[in-house]
Amino acid sequence: MPMLRIAQLIMFVAMFSCSGKDIKETPGEQDEVAQRIQLPAGFKISVYANDVKQARGMDIGSDGTVFVGSRSEGKVYALKDTNGDFKADKIYTIASGLNMPAGVAFHNGSLYVSSVSSIVRLDDVENRLANPPAPITVYDDYPTNEHHGWKYIAFGPDGKLYVPVGAPCNICNESDSIYATITRLNPDGSNMEIYASGVRNSVGFDWHPQTGELWFTENGRDWLGDDSPPCELNHAPQKGMHFGFPFCHAGNLADPEFGQGHPCSGYTAPAKNLGPHVAPLGMKFYTGNMFPAEYRNQIFIAEHGSWNRSTKIGYRIMLVKLNGNQAVSYEPFATGWESAGNVYGRPVDIVLLPDGSMLVSDDHAGKVYRITYAN
Length: 375
Description:
By secondary structure, this protein is mainly beta. The chain is 5% helix and 37% strand.
């Protein structure tokens, strides 16, 4: 389909996507969340927003609007806290009819939104929440495969938009080099290039606040058993690194189908192996001032949770502590979204509000939570 026709179709759909509605709290809901989620001493969790169906990737605008992409809903939401009580009381649907718009990234007054094969942009969006602008197509030449086709996106310190392209399979060796990568492009869609290769499926990344180097989560392959392979946290300080997929997993495990002739020593090992099948998605370096100093510049990871493991694992927020570029620990921070095989929620992404509190999206419960700390 020609680019112009695609843009016209998106513009037509967006015309019907400008509604805003009040968010109503459910009595006792915050008590229920507090009872389920376990946090370190001094931390508390509450509901920031209800009724955010399929809440996936998030970003925050310059005026404090919380933008949330969905996946199966095909929508993009804007959450507003109009009275400053740290609870969203207004939700706008600012785009709809998109193909798995899981990722959002705010940049220079515009909101960039991912679809499976394209990136679109909504200009001056915070001033037009009730009457959103028509999306402008920025780039529309990514693969159309829906398997691992939804995309987390974020702008790096270099001003470029980073966009992952997942493998269109559980395990395969595609001839097209665009698959199993993290790409980047200019804000206008020009100069798309592959930044990192051998990345099965990354649904979250961030840049170290001091070094500006990229770190990302990666979902490991399935069907090698409950405990193999681990999912990964990876570190990509420079362009051109290869992280092993589909030949090598977790730094030392040759794939039984594709590993022969491809020793793991030829690829970049993970910075930290995570739990097997925990599905690590959004990750964020903590740069706020609310949490204690020990959390500063450390990595929080949202683990979406296993889907086919005989005993469920994940469904939590994990903390990875660094010593320089060395990941020295991996420990639970917030747990309780799953208990005894019962799933109450599935964390997806993490962003920080200006006050240093943490927002966590949950596509299973259709909510956004807020985590705070007080002595």
